[in-house]
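FAQ
Q: What does a multi-component entry look like?
A: The components come first, one per line:
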Amino acid sequence: MNHLYKPTLMKIEQIKEETSDVKTFRLVFLDPLLKETFQFKAGQFAEISVFGEGEATFCIASSPTWHGFIECSVKRAGKVTQALHQMDVGDTVGFRGPYGNHFPVEEMRKKDLVFVAGGIGLAPLRSLIWNCLYSRDQFGKITILYGARSVADLVYKEELKTWETRHDTYFIKTVDPGGETNDWDGKIGFVPLVMRDLDINPQNAYAIVCGPPVMIKFTVQGLDAMGFSPEKIITTLEMKMKCGLGKCGRCNIGHTYVCKDGPVFSFAEIQAMPAEF
Amino acid sequence: MQTTIETDIKQVETMNKQISKKAIDAIISELTEGCQIFAPVVQDGIKLYKQIESPEQINWGHGNCHRSLKELFFPITEPVFSFRQTRKGIQIETPGNHNKKRVVIGARPCDCNALSITDKVFKWDYEDELYLSFRENTLIIGVSCIQPEPFCFCTALNLSPFDETGSDILLTETGKGIYHANIITEKGVALFERFKEHFTEASPDQSARKDAMLKDIVSKMPAPFPMQDIKTWLDKNFDHPVWEEIALGCIGCGTCTYLCPTCHCFDITDESRGYAGERLRNWDSCAFGHFTQMPAHQPRPLQWQRFRQRVMHKFKYYIDRFSRLACVGCGRCRSLCPAGKDTVEVIQTLQKQIDLAETGPKTNKKG
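Then the predicted structure of the entire assembly, as C-alpha cells:
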C-alpha cells in the first residue's frame, strides 16, 4: 500500500560544511524520472529522514530554478540532525515533500525586494533570492541584509561574496557585536539596528524576513516604522512538525496549520493569529 | 453548533427493523468466518474494544470502553513501514493488514460520532490512506446508551445517546433481548440484505417505545450548554487571565488526550536494530511539553498554555476549521483524569466568564 508517510529515496551527492554546526546537503532522487520531473516552489519544505533515527523538517534551500537536485541546510540540534551530520556522500536518506505554501513570487514581480535574514534563517531566503536573480530583470531593486552571531556563523559564504560583487544586488552583511574578526569587512551590529541605516524605500516593495524569533520581532518593528504595510512583510514560520500534512496536530497556531496554511505568512496574517509564536 | 457535516459515508433512508439478541449472535458467529470482529470485551477489569472469536465474548453491559473506538482506525502505535538496509540499498515495505474486512459491534454512539470528527482530519486535503483504508473496510454496529454513566454529557453538546452518526447500523435495546435496529448506511443495508431472515419489521409500538425511552434518558442527562456563546467568548479571550486558573491542577500526563475519541495528534518515530527497523506512528499529546519543543523556541512553555490549547482546539479551532465541535461528551476525560480535572467544569467556568462579562463587575481584563 502506498501512503503519505512512505518516503522516496534520495542520495547525498555533496556535503558542504557551512559552519561548525551547519552542513548543506545536496540530494538527488534515486528514481531518474523523479530526478528529472521534481518541482517545488521557493518557501516549501520537506521531511527528510535518516532510516533508524527518524524524520525532521527542513526548508528546501536550493532554488526552484536549479534542476536535478535539491539542497537542505541542516543545523545540528537534535537526534535526526545529528545523524544527518554523520552521513557521507553516497548515503541514502528518505524524502517526503514538497509541502506547504510558498513565497508569493508572482506578486513580487516588478517590486523592490528587501531580504533580511539572520543565521540559518538565510536558508529559505536563499531559495527565493536565487529564484529572483534567475529572472533578475523582472524585479526592482534587490537588497539583501544578512547577519549572524559571529563571522564563523555566516552560512553560504561563497554565495555571499557573489551577491556582494554583483552590480544588480545591494548586499550588506553584519555580525553581532563581539562576533567580528580582525579582517571582517562587514558591519558590526544587530540586524534590526543595521537595517535602520539602509536606504530602503517601502513604496512598491516587499520585505522578506527570516531568522530567530527575536530578530524577526525587532526587524518587523523596524520595517513597520519605515512604512512597510503588514501585508508586504513576509516571513516563514518555524514550528515543530512531524507529518507536514495537516494531520499530526502540533504545528497549529490557532486554527492555522503552519505546515499547510504556511510556513510562509505575511505579517498581517500573523497579527491575526493568537499571540503564541 | 452541531452543524451537520458532509461525509463520504453513503447514508440511505433509515430503515427501522427489529432483531433479537439470539439472531445478532448468529450473525456475528457467521461473520467471524472471513471478517475480523471487534467488540467491547472486559479483560482484567478493563473494558476495551478487542478482536473476538465468538459472540459470547461480547460485553453487552452498560457503560463505555475505557479507551475509545478510534484505536481501531488510528492505533496507539502503528508501523507505517518497515525498512531494511541491503546491498541493493534501502528496501521499504508498507503494512498489508489494512484490507481485511472488519465489523465492530457494540460501539457507543459517542465513539461512532467521534469518527466523523477524526474522519475530517484524516481526509482534508491530503488523504491519509492508513486511517481511511481501515475506515473503509470496517462496518460499525453501534448500540444506543439506555443507561448512560454519571460522567456522560453528550446531551450537553446537543448530541444524543441514540445518535446514529458514524454507525452503519444502530441497535437499541427496547425489551429484554430485543433490539430496535436502524439501518443507516449503504454498508448497513448490505449487511441487512445478507442476513435479512434474522430481521423483522419494527412495530410502531417498538418505535414509539424507543422514542419514549430516549425522552426519559435525556431528561436525566445534562441540559445543553450554550456552546455558540462559549465559542464567541473563546474567539476573543485567548489572553484571558482565567486560563491559568482553569488549568490549575493539570499535571500534563496526557491521559485526557489518550482517552479522548477525537484527539488525533501523533508522533512519527523510528525504531531499529542493526540494518532493519520500523517507522512508527504513535499517539502524542498536546499536554506534553516536548510536543512543541523546538531547539530554539517553545510556543507553549507552561502547562496552562497546553491546557488552553486542548480546550481551544475542541471548542474553537476545530470549529473554525471544520464547522463543528471536536467533543462528543463521552466523559472519559472527566472520569479518568488523575488530577480530577473536569471538562464540564471547564465549560462551566467559561460560562461563568461570559455571565460576568455581561453583568459585570468587569473582570474581563486582557493581559
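Q: Is there any commentary attached?
A: Sometimes. For this entry: Chain B has two domains: 11-219, 227-359.
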